Amino acid sequence: MSHLVQFDVDVNDPAFLYLNLHTDEEIKVVVRRHWAGFLGTIAISLAMAIFPVLVIILSHYVFDAPSNFTFFLIVLVASYYLFLLTFIFGAWINYYYDIIFITSERLLNVAQEGLLSRQVSELSLGQVQNVSAEVSGFIQNYFNYGHLVVETAGEGSGETQSKFGLQGYFTIPDLPDPNRLARIILELHRSIHVKEKL
């Protein structure tokens, strides 16, 4: 899991230029979504991959399909698998390129939206009021991943139905070790308030 959470980050890396970091802003932690969050997509893809095989078996042995129908069925199944591969590739891109940056000043959520689009949401750590981790179910507890919910003074955004659209919540799903990330964010929030008081 160490590859999912990275602490030593080179701010001058050209890969991070799109973040538009402020002067003296440092990237403290880079977090990628946990791989177990992708298991649902894999399960759906496997079920979708098995379905045409069942159709071919039924059409060949049960219904005794004519030979000209077999050619049509092969073309249809090949098109179906091409669509399925495109679906899996798009879902993998969306999963793999979702990255969370915790800097000395902000929380940046980079969400890949399709092949050619990304959405960057940012939240000033000074606005943070509370941070909590939601780890539920056997799989999330076993692999130690879950949702990170940041309560803010401003408007929120979210991807879970329980917090979706509620003002003041910034929800990020499927993060590894969310309790540790919550502590890191709260410590950075406190250090910002200490600096402001000095």
UniProtKB/TrEMBL annotation:
The organism's taxonomic lineage, starting at the top: Bacteria, Candidatus Berkelbacteria
Domain YdbS-like PH: 110-185
Protein name in UniProt: YdbS-like PH domain-containing protein
Residues that span the membrane, as ranges: 38-63, 69-97
Record keyword Kinase present: no
PANTHER family tied to this protein: BLL0215 PROTEIN
InterPro entries to which the protein is assigned, alphabetical: YdbS-like_PH
Keyword entries, A-Z: Membrane, Transmembrane, Transmembrane helix
